[in-house]
Amino acid sequence: MNKEHLVIFDTTLRDGEQSPGASMTREEKVRIALMLEKMRVDVIEAGFAIASEGDFEAVKAVAAAVKDSTVCSLSRAMEADIRRAAEALQPAASGRIHTFIATSPIHMKYKLQMQPDQVVEQAVKAVRLARNLMDDVEFSCEDAGRSEIDFLCRIVEAAIAAGARTINIPDTVGYAIPELYAEQIRQLIERVPNSDQAIFSVHCHNDLGLAVANSLAAVQAGARQVECTINGLGERAGNAALEEIVMAVRTRPDVFSVETRIEPVHIVPTSRLVSTVTGFPVQPNKAIVGKNAFAHESGIHQDGVLKHRETYEIMKAQDVGWHTNAIVLGKHSGRNAFRTRLQELGISFATEQELNNAFILFKQLADKKHEIYDEDLQALVTDTRAAAAAEHVQLVAMEVQSKTGETPLAQVVLNVEGQEQNAQAEGSGPVDAVYKAIESVISSGASLELYSVNAITSGTDSQGEVTVRLARGGRIVNGLGADTDIVIASAKAYINALNALQTSVERTHPQGTGI
Ligand SMILES: CC(=O)SCCNC(=O)CCNC(=O)[C@H](O)C(C)(C)COP(=O)(O)OP(=O)(O)OC[C@H]1O[C@@H](n2cnc3c(N)ncnc32)[C@H](O)[C@@H]1OP(=O)(O)O
Ligand SMILES: CC(C)C(=O)C(=O)O
């Protein structure tokens, strides 16, 4: 099927900048514009030239920098705005003046305080002036979503006759519903006698979360330009997200008879740039560009993706600029994902039982921690292997009381050579108390040469990894322990070192006297 071209009009630098707190400097706008150009956006709305000296300079700088995309400036239906826009666009290889006036009864009556006839007259004058200054002129009926269809037909016909090449029908306040909005576009195209002389465009706001759905419904009804923003940035709840429009059209060629010229591989880098410049983070579950958009945490999905990616992915992460999709290990993960990740880390187990033991520890850890990182897995494997080695001493249970102004008290239950033993001790800190309690049972006679604790990953739910070095009679051993509770990690590390000390005694003196 021969596809029609869908014009992608990006207004991140104009409507996106209207998000409270998202204002951008001239240099930042140029950086983003160059990324949009690289992505092959057709039209970049760079600002509202009359808004301020800074915005005028920004539009001018973008117009000078961009060569491949059309650069556009917004202007009210007023002579001063239009002339300022034309002046800012002077350096553009291809420039567009975008002029607008509100057409809904509520806007005309209360905001503009004009009669409908006056609005039509002002729109026509504005479009004519803009056409005298520039070939490419777009006219928008602000608040078209709440405008009467007969009035819209009248003003659109007049604007096209005055020279507008693009007619934009914005749902300014995000009031539209897909079927009704599509019907509005369809009727305009059918009823306006000169509609074939213009491209119909849509510009949807997301107040009801319907901006993308409305835009796509309008495309199905004949709109051939979509105005959108990176990350859905924009006034109030934002605009239709460019990445969602582009990828919907691309992913469902069976549904859409249009195509864009966007190179989607630049989507994620551009999204990151916009987020960094504006300081607006992208929510993790945001379609296409959110951190979780191509991440799988649940075992059944991970198993499916590992067997055949398309079982749970309708797009390819790399196509939109991600390095790869992600299998995130957590409490919902299964053995297939666990084993695969360990294999990627170069870790394999001699027996299925060893893998199962590690998987049990993994699930226990995942119950305490949101996400399990590679470093966690490495520590976990060390723990599994330490457990598999001969263990003379095992930690059964422990409890530590640590209160401001009071001496910490530790109670431990150890299994020593198969026999449970209880002990308690005070210490200068909780770890000191635990170590003294352990020593009151074991009496190893070893000296503590090193104690260090590291957070394995970032975040307060990170595991602490403790390293302990013990020395006795010229023998030095290290013990490692990891846990989300660093006092437990410390106990594990100490016991691990005591066991290593005993193992080294056995190696040198097979009839050795024990710990
Ligand atoms: C839906 C949209 O996103 S529209 C774009 C919104 N973006 C912006 O407003 C950002 C840039 N705006 C600005 O910097 C300022 O509002 C300016 C420079 C445009 C105008 O500033 P001011 O002259 O101080 O006017 P102010 O903003 O207070 O009021 C807007 C005036 O424009 C009139 N107006 C609003 N839209 C239009 C229009 N499309 N065409 C003609 N006049 C309009 C209003 O009726 C009001 O007129 P009044 O002062 O005679 O009552
Ligand atoms: C000026 C127009 C295009 C607009 O931003 C809107 O109506 O939301």
TrEMBL record:
- Annotated NCBIfam families: leuA_bact, PRK00915.1-3, PRK00915.1-4
Coiled-coil residue spans: none
> From which source organism is this entry?
Marinospirillum alkaliphilum DSM 21637
UniProt-recorded name of the protein: 2-isopropylmalate synthase
Q: EC number(s) on record?
A: 2.3.3.13
Q: Say which domain of life the source belongs to.
A: Bacteria
Family, per entry? Belongs to the alpha-IPM synthase/homocitrate synthase family. LeuA type 1 subfamily.
Which residue ranges does the record annotate as region Regulatory domain?
394-515
* InterPro entries per UniProt: 2-IPM_HCS-like (IPR050073), 2-isopropylmalate_synth_dimer (IPR013709), AIPM/Hcit_synth_CS (IPR002034), Aldolase_TIM (IPR013785), LeuA/HCS_post-cat (IPR054691), LeuA_allosteric_dom_sf (IPR036230), LeuA_bact_synth (IPR005671), PYR_CT (IPR000891)
Asked if the record carries the keyword Aminoacyl-tRNA synthetase, the reply is no
What top-tier enzyme class does this entry carry?
transferase
The pathway that the record names for this protein is:
Amino-acid biosynthesis; L-leucine biosynthesis; L-leucine from 3-methyl-2-oxobutanoate: step 1/4
UniProt xrefs under PROSITE patterns: AIPM_HOMOCIT_SYNTH_1 (PS00815), AIPM_HOMOCIT_SYNTH_2 (PS00816), PYR_CT (PS50991)
